[in-house]
Amino acid sequence: MRLPEIAKINWRSPIIQLIAFLFINQFLIGAIAFVSTPPGPNEAGWKYTYDLMQVKGGADSWNAMTAAVNHLEEEPDKLLYSTLVFEEGTKFQYPPQSLPPYRVVSFGVHQVTDNTNRGFAAIGVACVLIIAGLTAIILAQSENRPVGPLYLLAGLFAAVTFYPLIRGVALGQIQTWITLAFTAALLLGMNGRMRLSGVFIGFACLLKPHYGLFVLWGALRKEWGFSVAILAVCAIASVVSLILYGFAQHFDYLHFLSFLSRHGEPYFPNQSVNGILNRLYGLAEPDLYPNLTFLGHSFAPFNPVVYGGTMVFAVASLGTALWASRRDLALSFCIMMLSITVSSPVAWEHHYGLALPIFAVAFGALRDRPSALAWLAVSYVLVSHVWLVTNLLANTPVNIVQSYLFFGAIILLVLLHQAAIRKTVPGSDPFYDKGLWERFTRRARPGNSGTQ
């Protein structure tokens, strides 16, 4: 493009500014993240974008799920989780309801033994491309604009460079399917298709049961079709699963789920309060709480302070999400999903891939607030890159900086709450608080130049 043509670009257009930011974030800030990476394996986001273009992917979820399927076929009378997780060290963490859909999708997909799988990698790449298109539509709708080439460019470029999303494909993670289901559910909800939106959330619940909290979110909004759709999908899948595997395997899963919530993971990619607290305790007992090494065959020991802190944070974040449930649909939908994610005792980096469409909603809601957009940019920089330079502080009291992605998500969550309060029409929301409304909108009033 020639200089005269560049000069004709309307740089005041929000979508042009967004695309410019995405390029700066990828090539300038991404270079900083790459150069600052300590010696060792190349974990830069660029590597994962390149692997995505080559349709490369691991078998993190697929190996575990295949092991679970084989166990149930060969030894159906032995408890799945007690044997697979606690005896054999295979961290299969999905409910039994996840296995029938997996078997349907995996039918005919060739399994290889070198921890890679082209078939599932191709499915992962397809998911990313669909997420890119859906995110472009969400972005355009959040700005009340028609979907055009610039929005499609922004959605595509953001998706193929968004570290948590493409990291999931590189690992071979079924979380990419969940991200696609959430993105579709969000777009459907924004267009009033709440029952179909509930079907997609119901599918996500088959893989991660804690997304079932959306049933309560829907009930508070009186979106009964949405909540019933979630319950219907879960009920049908549960009946099929019970017929195939029996009650004992499902009770064994509940036992494992309780164990997981009480222990968690100290490994630094666990971007949660549980991960932060476990890593702080690891300063005194590094052998029990390894920060830079994955506990492939065990979990962190139970610690009442870690467990209590995790539960208190979960209650606070989920409580505020439900408190905001009657506000703007898109914003409250995003608040609920992000709150569920950050509240989990184990929230790996790739679990935050679903933040991409949430950023699109936030950008549309905050585009007229420069200070909020600046904070949104900070959040995106923290979430969209891998900052391994923070691992240099792993053995120091400030290893909390390793949770940069978690804090980026918290910034995003706060911005969503602020935007939801500002969009609330006084008197229309039973949870509406006039004091909060006044504090968050005072700056936005025309002619108001005072300070708070």
Write the layout of secondary structure elements.
Blueprint: H1 3-7, H2 14-35, H3 45-53, H4 60-74, H5 80-84, H6 99-106, H7 118-142, H8 149-161, H9 163-171, H10 175-190, H11 194-207, H12 214-220, H13 224-245, H14 247-263, H15 273-281, H16 304-323, H17 329-343, H18 355-366, H19 370-384, H20 404-423, H21 434-441
Helix pairs in contact: 2-8, 3-9, 7-8, 7-9, 7-10, 7-18, 10-11, 10-17, 11-13, 12-13, 15-16, 16-17, 17-18, 17-20, 18-19, 18-20, 19-20
Distance between the termini: 45 Å
Our estimate of the beta-strand percent is under 5%
Q: What is the share of helical residues? A: 55-70%
Low-confidence stretches: 3-7, 111-115, 430-437, 443-452
What string, H for helix and E for strand, traces the elements in order?
HHHHHHHHHHHHHHHHHHHHH
- How many DSSP helices? 21
Structural class: mainly alpha
Provide the residue-averaged pLDDT: 87
Shape: globular
Strand elements, count = 0
Largest sheet: none
What does this 3D model show about the protein?
The chain has 452 residues and is an all-alpha fold. Helix content is 63%, strand content 0%. The protein has helices at 3-7, 14-35, 45-53, 60-74, 80-84, 99-106, 118-142, 149-161, 163-171, 175-190, 194-207, 214-220, 224-245, 247-263, 273-281, 304-323, 329-343, 355-366, 370-384, 404-423, 434-441. α10 (175-190) runs antiparallel to α11 (194-207), α10 (175-190) packs antiparallel against α17 and α11 runs parallel beside α13. The longest helix is centred in the first third of the chain and has 25 residues, at 118-142. The model is unreliable at 3-7, 111-115, 430-437 and 443-452 (pLDDT under 50).
